[in-house]
Amino acid sequence: MAVISRGFTGRGGEANPELPPGQYLTADFPVLSAGPTPHIATADWQFSIRTDADTLQTWSWDELHALPIENIDTDIHCVTRWSKLGTSWRGVSLDTLFATVETTDAYVMAHSYGGYTTNVPLADLLGGKAWIALEFDGVNLDPEHGGPARLLIPHLYFWKSAKWIRGLEMQSTDEPGFWEQNGYNMYGDPWLEQRYW
Ligand SMILES: Nc1nc2c(c(=O)[nH]1)N[C@H]1C(S)=C(S)[C@@H](COP(=O)(O)O)O[C@H]1N2
Ligand SMILES: [Mo]
């Protein structure tokens, strides 16, 4: 079996099997934000799962921290072609949050403080695939990277991982969010290179 070290870019010929097609490795952590960084005090922070009409459940900062917090080691892939391997995060699984929410809707619109939105099927948030991330690399999430809390959905392109997450809106149909209205793919699988329309 070939031994492929992390950091091998495949320039010698062989592709790095950890790198989706068309991606390159980066060691730093680029900041990509469509607008200014909102600063939300944790005392004012709330996260809710809701429908158009009703709030199904709300968590304060302290209520969220009373839930199990998991370690997540994962690769992340931005549609602008950088990938970062072996990143480490801590956060609350969406499985934990949805365990006490009843819904028949199959789609979710993520809403951020500051107004950013992105759409994702509910199935992609469940089954150990998505978290409300609170820490990166052992420290509280930097505001530029989405602190106090961001969505982390590492199996999809990173624009789906909404920074400054404020809530999830349940929807019966798949509606486009901010980037999806501006030409990005509705789903965004990096292994299938689902970048744009
Ligand atoms: N609220 C919000 N979330 C966002 C964005 C944004 O502009 N606003 N940009 C997205 C994009 S395009 C990417 S690649 C990642 C970048 O996260 P980073 O700045 O922590 O690298 O956040 C995603 N989440
Ligand atoms: Mo991105």
TrEMBL record:
Coiled coil: none
Protein's name according to its UniProt entry: Sulfite oxidase-like oxidoreductase
SUPFAM superfamilies: Oxidoreductase molybdopterin-binding domain
Database matches in PANTHER family: OXIDOREDUCTASE MOLYBDOPTERIN-BINDING DOMAIN-CONTAINING PROTEIN, PROTEIN-METHIONINE-SULFOXIDE REDUCTASE
Lineage: Bacteria, Bacillati, Actinomycetota, Actinomycetes, Micrococcales
UniProt xrefs under Pfam families: Oxidored_molyb (PF00174)
Domain Oxidoreductase molybdopterin-binding positions: 35-179
Native source organism of the sequence: Cryobacterium gelidum
Origin: domain of life: Bacteria
Disordered as annotated region, ranges: 1-20
Gene3D superfamilies: Oxidoreductase, molybdopterin-binding domain (3.90.420.10)
